[in-house]
Amino acid sequence: MKARIEEKIWKTVLWVISFSTLAILLVILFYILSRGLKMINYGFLTETPRAMGREGGIYPAILGTVYFVILTLILAVPLGVAAAVQLTEYSRESLLVKIIRFGNESLAAVPSIVFGLFGFALFVVKLKPYTGGYSILSGSLTGTLMILPILIRATEEAIKAVPREYREASYALGATHWQTVTRIVLPAAAPGIITAVILGIGRIVGETAALLLTLGGSVLIPTSIFAPARTLALHIYLVAMEVGAMDMAFGTAAVLILTVLALNLSAYFLRRHFLSIRGAK
Amino acid sequence: MLGRRIRERFYESLLFISALISVVAVFMIALFVFLEGYPIIQKEGLGNFLLGREWRPLAGIFGIFPMIVGSIVVTLGALVLGVPVSLATAVFLAEFAPKRANMILRPGIELLAGIPSVIYGLFGMTTVVPAIRFIETRYLAHKLPPQMQSGYSVLAAAIILAIMISPTIIAISEDALRAVPRHLKEASLALGATHWQTVVKVLIPTARSGILASIILGMGRAIGETMAVIMVVGNNVLIPTSIFSPCRTLTSNIAIEAAYAAEGPHMQALFATGIVLFVIIIILNLIALRVAGREVMSR
Questions:
Q1: Is residue B38 part of a domain?
Q2: Which tens digits make up the pLDDT trace of A217-261?
Q3: Closest residue, chain B, to A23 (C-alpha)
Q4: In this predicted model, what pLDDT tens digit does every residue of A66-88 receive, in sequence order?
Q5: Is residue A112 within 8 angstroms of chain B, CB to CB?
Q6: pTM of the full predicted structure?
Q7: Would you list the domain boundaries of chain A?
Q8: Which domain holds residue B235?
Q9: How far apart are alpha carbons A138 and B289 in whole angstroms?
Q10: How far apart, in whole angstroms, are the C-alpha atoms of residue A198 and residue A93?
Q11: Which residue of B has its CA nearest to A254?
Protein backbone atom coordinates (compact mmCIF):
# COMPACT_ATOMS: atom_id res chain seq x y z
CA MET A 1 0.00 0.00 0.00
CA LYS A 2 2.83 2.36 0.87
CA ALA A 3 4.44 1.64 -2.49
CA ARG A 4 1.22 2.57 -4.28
CA ILE A 5 0.93 5.88 -2.48
CA GLU A 6 4.58 6.58 -3.16
CA GLU A 7 4.00 5.92 -6.83
CA LYS A 8 1.01 8.27 -6.89
CA ILE A 9 3.06 11.06 -5.32
CA TRP A 10 6.02 10.64 -7.67
CA LYS A 11 3.81 10.47 -10.72
CA THR A 12 2.22 13.76 -9.74
CA VAL A 13 5.66 15.29 -9.24
CA LEU A 14 6.72 14.13 -12.71
CA TRP A 15 3.57 15.60 -14.27
CA VAL A 16 4.26 18.94 -12.64
CA ILE A 17 7.95 19.04 -13.56
CA SER A 18 7.38 17.97 -17.16
CA PHE A 19 4.74 20.57 -17.75
CA SER A 20 6.87 23.21 -16.07
CA THR A 21 9.35 22.85 -18.97
CA LEU A 22 6.46 23.62 -21.29
CA ALA A 23 5.48 26.52 -19.06
CA ILE A 24 8.99 27.98 -19.34
CA LEU A 25 8.73 27.85 -23.14
CA LEU A 26 5.37 29.61 -23.05
CA VAL A 27 6.64 32.26 -20.64
CA ILE A 28 9.61 33.03 -22.89
CA LEU A 29 7.47 33.20 -26.03
CA PHE A 30 4.77 35.27 -24.37
CA TYR A 31 7.22 37.68 -22.77
CA ILE A 32 9.22 38.34 -25.96
CA LEU A 33 6.10 38.67 -28.11
CA SER A 34 4.22 40.87 -25.66
CA ARG A 35 7.09 43.32 -25.49
CA GLY A 36 8.07 42.99 -29.14
CA LEU A 37 4.88 42.78 -31.19
CA LYS A 38 3.81 46.32 -30.36
CA MET A 39 7.03 47.60 -31.95
CA ILE A 40 6.29 45.95 -35.27
CA ASN A 41 4.67 48.09 -37.92
CA TYR A 42 5.26 48.89 -41.57
CA GLY A 43 7.94 51.46 -40.81
CA PHE A 44 9.79 49.11 -38.46
CA LEU A 45 10.08 46.52 -41.21
CA THR A 46 10.95 48.83 -44.10
CA GLU A 47 13.11 51.62 -42.66
CA THR A 48 16.82 51.68 -41.98
CA PRO A 49 18.02 52.09 -38.38
CA ARG A 50 18.85 55.57 -37.17
CA ALA A 51 21.03 56.61 -34.24
CA MET A 52 22.87 53.25 -34.12
CA GLY A 53 19.59 51.38 -34.02
CA ARG A 54 17.93 53.41 -31.29
CA GLU A 55 15.33 54.57 -33.78
CA GLY A 56 14.09 53.60 -37.20
CA GLY A 57 13.57 50.09 -38.52
CA ILE A 58 15.32 46.83 -39.17
CA TYR A 59 15.11 46.59 -42.96
CA PRO A 60 18.87 46.05 -43.49
CA ALA A 61 18.88 43.26 -40.88
CA ILE A 62 15.96 41.52 -42.60
CA LEU A 63 17.71 41.79 -45.94
CA GLY A 64 21.01 40.67 -44.40
CA THR A 65 19.30 37.63 -42.88
CA VAL A 66 17.68 36.67 -46.19
CA TYR A 67 20.95 37.02 -48.13
CA PHE A 68 22.90 35.13 -45.49
CA VAL A 69 20.42 32.26 -45.28
CA ILE A 70 20.01 31.88 -49.05
CA LEU A 71 23.74 31.95 -49.75
CA THR A 72 24.41 29.48 -46.94
CA LEU A 73 21.79 27.11 -48.33
CA ILE A 74 23.19 27.40 -51.86
CA LEU A 75 26.56 26.34 -50.49
CA ALA A 76 25.47 23.81 -47.89
CA VAL A 77 22.54 21.88 -49.40
CA PRO A 78 24.33 20.38 -52.45
CA LEU A 79 27.34 19.49 -50.30
CA GLY A 80 25.23 17.98 -47.53
CA VAL A 81 23.05 15.94 -49.86
CA ALA A 82 26.05 14.71 -51.84
CA ALA A 83 27.84 13.71 -48.65
CA ALA A 84 24.76 11.87 -47.38
CA VAL A 85 24.35 10.02 -50.68
CA GLN A 86 27.99 8.98 -50.54
CA LEU A 87 27.64 7.75 -46.96
CA THR A 88 24.41 5.81 -47.49
CA GLU A 89 24.52 4.62 -51.09
CA TYR A 90 28.15 4.27 -52.00
CA SER A 91 29.95 3.24 -48.83
CA ARG A 92 30.23 0.10 -46.86
CA GLU A 93 31.15 0.49 -43.23
CA SER A 94 34.85 0.96 -43.86
CA LEU A 95 37.43 2.73 -41.75
CA LEU A 96 37.12 5.76 -44.02
CA VAL A 97 33.38 5.99 -43.42
CA LYS A 98 34.03 5.77 -39.69
CA ILE A 99 36.47 8.65 -39.97
CA ILE A 100 33.95 10.68 -41.95
CA ARG A 101 31.25 10.05 -39.36
CA PHE A 102 33.61 10.99 -36.57
CA GLY A 103 34.45 14.18 -38.47
CA ASN A 104 30.76 14.96 -38.73
CA GLU A 105 30.11 14.38 -35.05
CA SER A 106 33.09 16.49 -34.05
CA LEU A 107 31.97 19.29 -36.35
CA ALA A 108 28.53 19.24 -34.73
CA ALA A 109 30.12 19.59 -31.30
CA VAL A 110 32.38 22.57 -32.05
CA PRO A 111 31.06 25.66 -30.23
CA SER A 112 29.86 28.39 -32.57
CA ILE A 113 32.35 30.94 -31.25
CA VAL A 114 35.17 28.62 -32.35
CA PHE A 115 33.60 28.50 -35.82
CA GLY A 116 33.67 32.27 -35.58
CA LEU A 117 37.38 32.34 -34.77
CA PHE A 118 38.09 30.00 -37.66
CA GLY A 119 35.94 31.98 -40.08
CA PHE A 120 37.65 35.16 -38.95
CA ALA A 121 41.17 33.74 -39.41
CA LEU A 122 40.50 32.07 -42.76
CA PHE A 123 37.69 33.87 -44.57
CA VAL A 124 37.92 37.38 -43.14
CA VAL A 125 41.71 37.74 -42.86
CA LYS A 126 43.49 35.22 -45.11
CA LEU A 127 41.02 35.17 -47.99
CA LYS A 128 40.13 38.84 -47.83
CA PRO A 129 40.79 39.52 -51.54
CA TYR A 130 38.20 36.87 -52.44
CA THR A 131 35.59 37.31 -49.72
CA GLY A 132 35.78 41.04 -49.11
CA GLY A 133 36.87 40.56 -45.49
CA TYR A 134 33.89 40.98 -43.15
CA SER A 135 31.09 40.07 -45.54
CA ILE A 136 27.97 38.04 -46.18
CA LEU A 137 30.16 35.57 -48.08
CA SER A 138 32.52 35.06 -45.11
CA GLY A 139 29.52 34.59 -42.82
CA SER A 140 27.87 32.12 -45.19
CA LEU A 141 31.02 30.05 -45.65
CA THR A 142 31.25 29.79 -41.86
CA GLY A 143 27.52 29.07 -41.57
CA THR A 144 27.84 26.34 -44.20
CA LEU A 145 30.27 24.40 -42.05
CA MET A 146 27.95 24.83 -39.07
CA ILE A 147 24.81 23.36 -40.64
CA LEU A 148 26.57 20.69 -42.67
CA PRO A 149 26.46 18.03 -39.90
CA ILE A 150 22.72 18.57 -39.29
CA LEU A 151 21.95 18.42 -43.01
CA ILE A 152 24.05 15.32 -43.60
CA ARG A 153 22.56 13.45 -40.65
CA ALA A 154 18.96 14.27 -41.52
CA THR A 155 19.42 13.55 -45.23
CA GLU A 156 21.01 10.21 -44.41
CA GLU A 157 17.95 9.31 -42.39
CA ALA A 158 15.62 10.39 -45.19
CA ILE A 159 17.55 8.26 -47.69
CA LYS A 160 17.61 5.24 -45.39
CA ALA A 161 13.83 5.48 -45.04
CA VAL A 162 13.32 4.88 -48.77
CA PRO A 163 12.03 1.29 -49.09
CA ARG A 164 14.43 -1.29 -50.52
CA GLU A 165 11.87 -2.41 -53.10
CA TYR A 166 12.11 0.94 -54.89
CA ARG A 167 15.80 0.39 -55.53
CA GLU A 168 15.35 -3.23 -56.51
CA ALA A 169 12.58 -2.38 -58.97
CA SER A 170 14.84 0.23 -60.52
CA TYR A 171 17.74 -2.19 -60.89
CA ALA A 172 15.41 -4.81 -62.30
CA LEU A 173 14.52 -2.37 -65.08
CA GLY A 174 18.20 -2.13 -65.96
CA ALA A 175 18.98 1.25 -64.36
CA THR A 176 22.52 1.90 -63.16
CA HIS A 177 23.34 2.68 -59.55
CA TRP A 178 23.67 6.38 -60.33
CA GLN A 179 20.35 6.50 -62.21
CA THR A 180 18.67 4.72 -59.34
CA VAL A 181 20.06 7.22 -56.84
CA THR A 182 19.20 10.35 -58.78
CA ARG A 183 15.83 9.33 -60.25
CA ILE A 184 14.39 7.02 -57.62
CA VAL A 185 16.03 7.38 -54.22
CA LEU A 186 16.48 11.15 -54.06
CA PRO A 187 12.95 12.03 -55.26
CA ALA A 188 11.52 9.55 -52.77
CA ALA A 189 13.66 11.06 -50.00
CA ALA A 190 12.89 14.65 -51.05
CA PRO A 191 10.25 15.34 -48.35
CA GLY A 192 12.68 14.30 -45.64
CA ILE A 193 15.44 16.36 -47.19
CA ILE A 194 13.18 19.42 -47.42
CA THR A 195 12.26 19.04 -43.75
CA ALA A 196 15.96 18.83 -42.91
CA VAL A 197 16.65 22.00 -44.88
CA ILE A 198 13.86 23.88 -43.09
CA LEU A 199 15.21 22.81 -39.70
CA GLY A 200 18.68 23.83 -40.90
CA ILE A 201 17.35 27.30 -41.74
CA GLY A 202 15.86 27.47 -38.26
CA ARG A 203 19.28 26.77 -36.84
CA ILE A 204 21.35 29.28 -38.81
CA VAL A 205 18.78 32.06 -38.77
CA GLY A 206 19.37 32.39 -35.02
CA GLU A 207 23.13 31.97 -35.18
CA THR A 208 24.96 34.90 -33.64
CA ALA A 209 28.34 34.14 -32.09
CA ALA A 210 30.02 32.97 -35.29
CA LEU A 211 28.57 35.88 -37.26
CA LEU A 212 29.81 38.37 -34.70
CA LEU A 213 33.33 37.57 -35.96
CA THR A 214 32.63 37.18 -39.67
CA LEU A 215 29.66 39.24 -40.86
CA GLY A 216 30.88 42.70 -39.89
CA GLY A 217 27.67 44.00 -38.31
CA SER A 218 27.14 46.87 -40.75
CA VAL A 219 23.84 48.77 -40.38
CA LEU A 220 23.84 49.68 -44.06
CA ILE A 221 21.70 47.90 -46.63
CA PRO A 222 23.93 45.13 -48.01
CA THR A 223 24.72 45.76 -51.69
CA SER A 224 26.46 42.50 -52.59
CA ILE A 225 27.63 39.27 -51.00
CA PHE A 226 31.04 40.90 -50.54
CA ALA A 227 29.57 43.63 -48.34
CA PRO A 228 29.34 43.43 -44.53
CA ALA A 229 25.87 43.05 -43.05
CA ARG A 230 24.00 42.09 -39.91
CA THR A 231 21.32 39.49 -39.38
CA LEU A 232 18.27 39.85 -37.11
CA ALA A 233 19.98 37.81 -34.39
CA LEU A 234 23.14 39.91 -34.57
CA HIS A 235 21.03 43.07 -34.55
CA ILE A 236 19.32 41.96 -31.33
CA TYR A 237 22.67 41.46 -29.62
CA LEU A 238 24.18 44.70 -30.88
CA VAL A 239 21.25 46.96 -29.99
CA ALA A 240 20.66 45.27 -26.63
CA MET A 241 24.26 45.14 -25.45
CA GLU A 242 26.02 48.00 -27.18
CA VAL A 243 23.28 50.56 -27.66
CA GLY A 244 20.92 49.57 -24.87
CA ALA A 245 17.83 50.09 -27.06
CA MET A 246 15.75 47.35 -25.48
CA ASP A 247 12.50 48.19 -27.31
CA MET A 248 14.23 47.77 -30.65
CA ALA A 249 15.82 44.53 -29.44
CA PHE A 250 12.41 43.15 -28.44
CA GLY A 251 10.82 44.20 -31.73
CA THR A 252 13.58 42.41 -33.63
CA ALA A 253 13.35 39.42 -31.31
CA ALA A 254 9.63 39.13 -32.01
CA VAL A 255 10.30 39.07 -35.76
CA LEU A 256 13.00 36.42 -35.27
CA ILE A 257 10.86 34.27 -32.97
CA LEU A 258 7.92 34.38 -35.37
CA THR A 259 10.28 33.30 -38.16
CA VAL A 260 11.64 30.41 -36.10
CA LEU A 261 8.11 29.39 -35.06
CA ALA A 262 6.93 29.41 -38.66
CA LEU A 263 9.91 27.30 -39.75
CA ASN A 264 9.43 24.77 -36.96
CA LEU A 265 5.70 24.53 -37.54
CA SER A 266 6.08 24.00 -41.26
CA ALA A 267 8.72 21.32 -40.67
CA TYR A 268 6.41 19.66 -38.14
CA PHE A 269 3.41 19.62 -40.45
CA LEU A 270 5.44 18.62 -43.49
CA ARG A 271 6.81 15.66 -41.60
CA ARG A 272 3.34 14.63 -40.43
CA HIS A 273 1.91 15.12 -43.89
CA PHE A 274 4.51 12.93 -45.56
CA LEU A 275 4.33 10.31 -42.84
CA SER A 276 0.59 10.05 -43.33
CA ILE A 277 1.03 9.68 -47.10
CA ARG A 278 3.56 6.94 -46.61
CA GLY A 279 1.37 5.31 -43.99
CA ALA A 280 -1.63 5.31 -46.31
CA LYS A 281 0.12 3.31 -48.98
CA MET B 1 27.84 3.32 -73.05
CA LEU B 2 31.45 3.83 -72.05
CA GLY B 3 30.89 7.60 -71.90
CA ARG B 4 28.13 7.09 -69.37
CA ARG B 5 30.30 4.92 -67.18
CA ILE B 6 33.04 7.54 -67.13
CA ARG B 7 30.51 10.27 -66.36
CA GLU B 8 29.12 8.26 -63.48
CA ARG B 9 32.61 7.66 -62.11
CA PHE B 10 33.14 11.40 -62.20
CA TYR B 11 29.92 12.10 -60.31
CA GLU B 12 30.77 9.47 -57.75
CA SER B 13 34.14 11.05 -57.06
CA LEU B 14 32.37 14.39 -56.56
CA LEU B 15 30.17 12.71 -53.96
CA PHE B 16 33.20 11.33 -52.26
CA ILE B 17 34.88 14.72 -52.06
CA SER B 18 31.69 16.22 -50.56
CA ALA B 19 31.64 13.54 -47.91
CA LEU B 20 35.22 14.34 -46.99
CA ILE B 21 34.48 18.04 -46.48
CA SER B 22 33.37 17.72 -42.88
CA VAL B 23 36.55 15.84 -41.99
CA VAL B 24 38.64 18.43 -43.79
CA ALA B 25 36.68 21.19 -42.05
CA VAL B 26 37.28 19.82 -38.56
CA PHE B 27 40.95 19.41 -39.37
CA MET B 28 41.19 22.95 -40.77
CA ILE B 29 39.36 24.48 -37.82
CA ALA B 30 41.67 22.76 -35.37
CA LEU B 31 44.71 23.69 -37.44
CA PHE B 32 43.81 27.35 -37.86
CA VAL B 33 42.83 27.96 -34.27
CA PHE B 34 46.00 26.23 -33.07
CA LEU B 35 48.29 28.02 -35.50
CA GLU B 36 46.88 31.42 -34.59
CA GLY B 37 46.87 30.81 -30.86
CA TYR B 38 50.01 28.78 -30.34
CA PRO B 39 52.58 31.64 -30.50
CA ILE B 40 51.17 33.36 -27.42
CA ILE B 41 51.07 30.12 -25.42
CA GLN B 42 54.66 29.47 -26.39
CA LYS B 43 55.67 33.00 -25.39
CA GLU B 44 53.79 33.11 -22.10
CA GLY B 45 54.25 29.48 -21.18
CA LEU B 46 51.27 27.12 -20.95
CA GLY B 47 51.24 27.24 -17.13
CA ASN B 48 51.20 31.04 -16.99
CA PHE B 49 48.51 31.23 -19.64
CA LEU B 50 46.21 28.68 -18.04
CA LEU B 51 46.83 29.58 -14.39
CA GLY B 52 47.57 33.30 -14.66
CA ARG B 53 45.03 35.28 -12.70
CA GLU B 54 45.52 38.52 -14.52
CA TRP B 55 44.05 39.39 -17.91
CA ARG B 56 45.24 42.79 -19.02
CA PRO B 57 45.55 42.55 -22.78
CA LEU B 58 46.63 46.16 -23.25
CA ALA B 59 49.52 45.62 -20.83
CA GLY B 60 50.39 42.34 -22.53
CA ILE B 61 49.36 40.17 -19.56
CA PHE B 62 47.33 37.15 -20.55
CA GLY B 63 46.11 34.76 -17.87
CA ILE B 64 42.81 32.98 -18.45
CA PHE B 65 42.41 31.25 -15.10
CA PRO B 66 39.41 33.42 -14.09
CA MET B 67 37.67 32.52 -17.36
CA ILE B 68 38.35 28.81 -16.93
CA VAL B 69 36.89 28.95 -13.43
CA GLY B 70 33.99 31.04 -14.75
CA SER B 71 33.12 28.50 -17.44
CA ILE B 72 33.32 25.61 -14.99
CA VAL B 73 31.23 27.28 -12.29
CA VAL B 74 28.53 28.44 -14.68
CA THR B 75 28.34 25.00 -16.28
CA LEU B 76 28.15 23.17 -12.96
CA GLY B 77 25.41 25.57 -11.87
CA ALA B 78 23.47 24.80 -15.04
CA LEU B 79 23.82 21.06 -14.41
CA VAL B 80 22.68 21.34 -10.79
CA LEU B 81 19.56 23.22 -11.88
CA GLY B 82 18.93 21.48 -15.19
CA VAL B 83 19.71 17.80 -14.72
CA PRO B 84 17.05 16.83 -12.15
CA VAL B 85 14.27 18.57 -14.07
CA SER B 86 15.43 17.16 -17.40
CA LEU B 87 15.73 13.61 -16.08
CA ALA B 88 12.31 13.80 -14.48
CA THR B 89 10.86 14.96 -17.78
CA ALA B 90 12.66 12.19 -19.68
CA VAL B 91 11.29 9.56 -17.28
CA PHE B 92 7.82 11.02 -17.62
CA LEU B 93 7.96 11.03 -21.43
CA ALA B 94 9.40 7.53 -21.66
CA GLU B 95 7.24 5.83 -19.04
CA PHE B 96 4.29 7.71 -17.65
CA ALA B 97 3.05 10.24 -20.18
CA PRO B 98 -0.26 9.45 -21.83
CA LYS B 99 -0.15 9.85 -25.63
CA ARG B 100 -1.86 13.24 -25.45
CA ALA B 101 0.69 14.67 -23.01
CA ASN B 102 3.48 13.29 -25.17
CA MET B 103 2.04 15.00 -28.21
CA ILE B 104 2.02 18.36 -26.45
CA LEU B 105 5.32 18.09 -24.64
CA ARG B 106 7.49 16.78 -27.44
CA PRO B 107 7.02 19.63 -29.95
CA GLY B 108 7.32 22.06 -27.04
CA ILE B 109 10.70 20.69 -26.04
CA GLU B 110 11.84 20.66 -29.67
CA LEU B 111 10.87 24.30 -29.91
CA LEU B 112 12.78 25.07 -26.73
CA ALA B 113 15.84 23.67 -28.53
CA GLY B 114 15.07 25.80 -31.57
CA ILE B 115 14.92 29.18 -29.84
CA PRO B 116 18.02 31.18 -30.82
CA SER B 117 20.51 31.70 -28.02
CA VAL B 118 20.46 35.46 -28.41
CA ILE B 119 16.76 35.37 -27.51
CA TYR B 120 17.52 33.40 -24.37
CA GLY B 121 20.08 36.09 -23.65
CA LEU B 122 17.59 38.89 -24.16
CA PHE B 123 15.03 37.10 -22.01
CA GLY B 124 17.57 36.48 -19.25
CA MET B 125 18.86 40.03 -19.35
CA THR B 126 15.39 41.53 -18.92
CA THR B 127 13.77 39.05 -16.51
CA VAL B 128 16.23 36.84 -14.65
CA VAL B 129 18.90 39.51 -14.14
CA PRO B 130 16.48 42.13 -12.73
CA ALA B 131 14.89 39.46 -10.50
CA ILE B 132 18.29 38.54 -9.05
CA ARG B 133 19.21 42.22 -8.74
CA PHE B 134 16.01 42.74 -6.76
CA ILE B 135 16.92 39.94 -4.34
CA GLU B 136 20.50 41.18 -4.05
CA THR B 137 19.62 44.79 -3.33
CA ARG B 138 16.50 44.19 -1.27
CA TYR B 139 17.44 41.25 0.93
CA LEU B 140 21.19 40.73 0.68
CA ALA B 141 22.46 44.30 0.35
CA HIS B 142 24.26 44.28 3.71
CA LYS B 143 25.95 40.93 3.01
CA LEU B 144 27.10 41.37 -0.58
CA PRO B 145 29.81 43.74 -1.85
CA PRO B 146 28.56 46.36 -4.34
CA GLN B 147 29.85 44.56 -7.45
CA MET B 148 27.59 41.64 -6.58
CA GLN B 149 24.43 43.71 -6.64
CA SER B 150 23.94 44.19 -10.36
CA GLY B 151 22.00 40.99 -11.00
CA TYR B 152 24.50 39.95 -13.69
CA SER B 153 25.86 36.81 -12.11
CA VAL B 154 26.86 33.17 -12.17
CA LEU B 155 23.34 32.36 -11.00
CA ALA B 156 21.67 34.19 -13.90
CA ALA B 157 23.86 32.37 -16.43
CA ALA B 158 23.25 29.02 -14.73
CA ILE B 159 19.47 29.49 -14.86
CA ILE B 160 19.44 30.40 -18.56
CA LEU B 161 21.88 27.61 -19.46
CA ALA B 162 19.84 25.08 -17.48
CA ILE B 163 16.87 25.87 -19.72
CA MET B 164 19.00 25.76 -22.86
CA ILE B 165 20.61 22.37 -22.20
CA SER B 166 17.44 20.63 -21.04
CA PRO B 167 16.23 19.59 -24.53
CA THR B 168 19.55 17.79 -25.17
CA ILE B 169 19.45 15.96 -21.85
CA ILE B 170 15.76 15.10 -22.14
CA ALA B 171 16.00 13.75 -25.71
CA ILE B 172 19.06 11.58 -25.19
CA SER B 173 18.10 10.17 -21.79
CA GLU B 174 14.57 9.46 -23.01
CA ASP B 175 16.08 7.43 -25.85
CA ALA B 176 18.29 5.59 -23.37
CA LEU B 177 15.29 4.77 -21.16
CA ARG B 178 13.26 3.55 -24.13
CA ALA B 179 16.13 1.34 -25.25
CA VAL B 180 15.99 -0.74 -22.06
CA PRO B 181 14.90 -4.28 -23.08
CA ARG B 182 11.24 -4.98 -22.41
CA HIS B 183 11.83 -8.23 -20.57
CA LEU B 184 13.74 -6.49 -17.77
CA LYS B 185 10.80 -4.23 -17.12
CA GLU B 186 8.30 -7.07 -17.34
CA ALA B 187 10.32 -9.24 -14.98
CA SER B 188 10.31 -6.47 -12.40
CA LEU B 189 6.57 -5.89 -12.74
CA ALA B 190 5.96 -9.64 -12.52
CA LEU B 191 7.80 -9.72 -9.20
CA GLY B 192 5.18 -7.34 -7.85
CA ALA B 193 7.15 -4.12 -8.08
CA THR B 194 5.13 -1.01 -8.84
CA HIS B 195 5.75 0.89 -12.05
CA TRP B 196 7.61 3.60 -10.11
CA GLN B 197 9.80 1.06 -8.32
CA THR B 198 10.59 -0.53 -11.68
CA VAL B 199 11.63 2.85 -13.07
CA VAL B 200 13.89 3.66 -10.15
CA LYS B 201 15.39 0.23 -9.53
CA VAL B 202 15.52 -1.25 -13.03
CA LEU B 203 15.11 1.25 -15.85
CA ILE B 204 17.30 4.10 -14.61
CA PRO B 205 20.20 1.85 -13.53
CA THR B 206 20.09 -0.02 -16.85
CA ALA B 207 19.99 3.20 -18.87
CA ARG B 208 22.62 4.95 -16.77
CA SER B 209 25.34 5.07 -19.42
CA GLY B 210 23.00 6.79 -21.88
CA ILE B 211 21.82 9.15 -19.16
CA LEU B 212 25.40 9.97 -18.22
CA ALA B 213 26.22 10.63 -21.87
CA SER B 214 23.27 13.01 -22.13
CA ILE B 215 24.56 14.95 -19.14
CA ILE B 216 28.08 15.16 -20.56
CA LEU B 217 26.74 16.37 -23.90
CA GLY B 218 24.60 18.94 -22.09
CA MET B 219 27.74 20.02 -20.29
CA GLY B 220 29.47 20.49 -23.64
CA ARG B 221 26.63 22.67 -24.84
CA ALA B 222 26.76 24.79 -21.70
CA ILE B 223 30.52 25.35 -21.90
CA GLY B 224 30.30 26.21 -25.60
CA GLU B 225 27.33 28.56 -25.33
CA THR B 226 28.24 32.16 -26.00
CA MET B 227 25.53 34.72 -26.68
CA ALA B 228 23.10 33.90 -23.91
CA VAL B 229 25.93 33.82 -21.38
CA ILE B 230 27.50 37.13 -22.44
CA MET B 231 24.19 38.89 -21.97
CA VAL B 232 23.63 37.79 -18.36
CA VAL B 233 26.96 36.98 -16.74
CA GLY B 234 28.48 40.45 -16.38
CA ASN B 235 31.79 39.61 -18.06
CA ASN B 236 34.02 41.04 -15.32
CA VAL B 237 37.39 39.32 -15.23
CA LEU B 238 37.40 37.92 -11.72
CA ILE B 239 37.29 34.57 -10.03
CA PRO B 240 33.72 34.11 -8.83
CA THR B 241 33.39 33.70 -5.07
CA SER B 242 29.62 33.38 -4.82
CA ILE B 243 26.68 32.55 -7.05
CA PHE B 244 25.96 36.28 -7.04
CA SER B 245 29.42 37.14 -8.44
CA PRO B 246 29.59 38.34 -11.99
CA CYS B 247 32.26 36.54 -13.99
CA ARG B 248 33.53 35.92 -17.48
CA THR B 249 33.58 32.61 -19.36
CA LEU B 250 35.99 31.38 -22.04
CA THR B 251 33.40 31.92 -24.76
CA SER B 252 32.44 35.41 -23.65
CA ASN B 253 36.10 36.35 -23.40
CA ILE B 254 36.49 35.63 -27.11
CA ALA B 255 33.24 37.22 -28.24
CA ILE B 256 33.59 40.39 -26.18
CA GLU B 257 37.14 41.21 -27.17
CA ALA B 258 37.41 39.91 -30.73
CA ALA B 259 35.55 42.96 -32.00
CA TYR B 260 38.24 45.39 -30.91
CA ALA B 261 41.36 43.26 -30.39
CA ALA B 262 44.32 44.45 -32.46
CA GLU B 263 46.29 42.00 -34.57
CA GLY B 264 49.14 40.51 -32.59
CA PRO B 265 49.35 39.17 -29.04
CA HIS B 266 45.81 40.19 -28.02
CA MET B 267 44.15 38.43 -30.95
CA GLN B 268 46.49 35.47 -30.50
CA ALA B 269 45.43 35.22 -26.86
CA LEU B 270 41.78 35.05 -27.96
CA PHE B 271 42.64 32.23 -30.35
CA ALA B 272 44.51 30.53 -27.52
CA THR B 273 41.31 30.83 -25.44
CA GLY B 274 39.61 29.11 -28.37
CA ILE B 275 42.17 26.29 -28.21
CA VAL B 276 41.36 25.69 -24.54
CA LEU B 277 37.65 25.65 -25.33
CA PHE B 278 38.15 23.33 -28.29
CA VAL B 279 40.21 20.88 -26.25
CA ILE B 280 37.63 20.82 -23.43
CA ILE B 281 34.79 20.11 -25.88
CA ILE B 282 36.70 17.35 -27.68
CA ILE B 283 37.55 15.70 -24.35
CA LEU B 284 33.91 15.86 -23.21
CA ASN B 285 32.71 14.35 -26.47
CA LEU B 286 35.26 11.58 -26.35
CA ILE B 287 34.11 10.78 -22.81
CA ALA B 288 30.47 10.76 -23.91
CA LEU B 289 31.33 8.52 -26.84
CA ARG B 290 33.23 6.19 -24.54
CA VAL B 291 30.42 6.08 -22.01
CA ALA B 292 27.54 5.61 -24.36
CA GLY B 293 28.72 4.07 -27.59
CA ARG B 294 27.71 5.10 -31.06
CA GLU B 295 23.94 4.78 -31.05
CA VAL B 296 23.41 7.58 -28.59
CA MET B 297 25.95 9.86 -30.22
CA SER B 298 24.35 9.70 -33.61
CA ARG B 299 21.50 11.89 -32.47
A1: no
A2: 888 899 999 999 999 999 999 999 988 899 999 999 999 999 999
A3: B108
A4: 999 999 999 999 999 999 999 88
A5: yes
A6: 0.92
A7: 57-280
A8: 67-297
A9: 32
A10: 29
A11: B119
